[in-house]
Amino acid sequence: MNGGIIHLYNEPRIISSACVVGNEEHIGPLGDLFDGYSSDPRFGMKTWESAESEMQRRAFLYALKKGSVKCEDISAVFAGDLQNQCVASTYGLLPYNAPYIGLYGACSTLAEGLVLSSMLIDSKKLCTVAVSASSHFCAAERQFRFPLEYGSQRPPTAQRTVTAAGTFILSQSGADIRICDVLIGRICDSGISDISNMGAAMAPAAADTLCRYFAQSQKRPSDFDLILTGDLGYEGIKILKDLCFAKGLDLSGNLNDCGLLIYSASEQDVHAGGSGCGCSAAVMSGYIMKRLKDKTLKNILLMCTGAMMSPTSLLQGQSIPSIAHLVHIRG
Amino acid sequence: MNGGIIHLYNEPRIISSACVVGNEEHIGPLGDLFDGYSSDPRFGMKTWESAESEMQRRAFLYALKKGSVKCEDISAVFAGDLQNQCVASTYGLLPYNAPYIGLYGACSTLAEGLVLSSMLIDSKKLCTVAVSASSHFCAAERQFRFPLEYGSQRPPTAQRTVTAAGTFILSQSGADIRICDVLIGRICDSGISDISNMGAAMAPAAADTLCRYFAQSQKRPSDFDLILTGDLGYEGIKILKDLCFAKGLDLSGNLNDCGLLIYSASEQDVHAGGSGCGCSAAVMSGYIMKRLKDKTLKNILLMCTGAMMSPTSLLQGQSIPSIAHLVHIRG
Question: Do residue A142 and residue A251 come from a single domain?
Answer without folding.
Answer: no
